[in-house]
Write a structure and sequence with these properties.
alpha+beta, 4 helices, binds ligand 3IX
């Protein structure tokens, strides 16, 4: 399946590229938040647009032909830098950093004004997005990796913008299917619960080497 790329990068070079990716994405993330909250007038908007367009032109000088894909070093470490939830190069991503414990996976992340749905509250689709990745990565690290087949989310109470905690664990593995459960907690209370079924697709069965299955970390 295209998009899964073997690309060996030496550790020092990788650390440098990783730092560059996080730094530019962080700046753009700040720009997004500033855009949501700005109250400046037409002339400041025009000036800001001019500078943003100039920055875009610099970044366009050297571009990948398409999406980033998922890249592996031969030691099994993995880079999902374009990922909409985790991607260190992606300013749309909060970004979520996952911590894989032996029996569960967790994350704590700050969701600011760019993730608003109802006034002052996190958009339900954003919570579903985070739960999809959290549960999917839990399946990948503690069960069998797979595409999301089914994701059910129950929103129990509103989730205010700000710090949230996500936690997930594998419920069971049945052949190519991994059943995972997870929660979003906000201010000490569970605000959303999810159950997901992650399925190793036909195209990946028998082809996925152990090193890819158990690849370490987002990179
Ligand atoms: C170098 C290669 C590395 C490959 C790694 C492998 C997987 C790659 C994927 C991701 C891994 C990594 C981590 C990230 C994880 C999550 C983050 C984000 C996830 C997403 O953002 S992902 C995008 C949204 N997602 C889709 O875009 C899926 C579109 N869809 C399909 O790609 C197929 O539809 C698929 C694969 C779902 C099934 O297709 P299939 O042909 O492989 O499966 P098949 O028919 O053989 O069924 C086998 C058993 O699953 C049951 N079953 C079938 N479909 C079901 C469903 N929907 N719900 C519940 N159960 C289902 C059957 O009933 C049978 O059950 P039983 O065996 O008990 O009879």
């Amino acid at each position: 399946m295209s998009g899964y790329i073997q690309e060996d990068i030496a550790p020092e070079e990788l650390a440098q590229r990783s730092e560059l990716a996080s730094s530019i994405a962080g700046s753009v993330r700040e720009l997004i938040e500033a855009t949501v909250r700005t109250e400046v007038g037409a002339s400041d908007i025009a000036e800001a647009r001019r500078l943003i367009e100039a920055a875009t032109e610099i970044l366009r000088k050297d571009q990948l032909p398409g999406a980033y894909g998922i890249r592996f070093n031969s030691d099994g470490s993995k880079r999902s830098w374009g990922n909409a939830v985790l991607g260190r190069r992606n300013p749309i991503a909060p970004p979520v950093v996952l911590h894989h414990e032996p029996d569960h996976t967790w994350t704590e992340v700050e969701l600011g004004p760019a993730y608003e749905g109802p006034a002052g509250l996190v958009h339900g689709g954003v919570l579903a997005l985070i739960l999809d990745q959290l549960l999917g990565s839990t399946a990948e690290f503690q069960g069998v990796p797979g595409m999301t087949g089914t994701l059910n989310v129950r929103y129990r109470r509103a989730t205010p913008l700000g710090q949230i905690r996500g936690e997930a664990r594998v419920d069971r593995v049945e052949g190519v299917k991994t059943f995972v459960r997870g929660t979003i907690t906000s201010a000490g209370e569970v605000s959303a619960e999810a159950e997901g079924i992650f399925i190793l697709p036909k195209w990946a069965r028998g082809e996925v080497s152990d090193v890819l299955r158990k690849s370490v970390g987002e990179g």
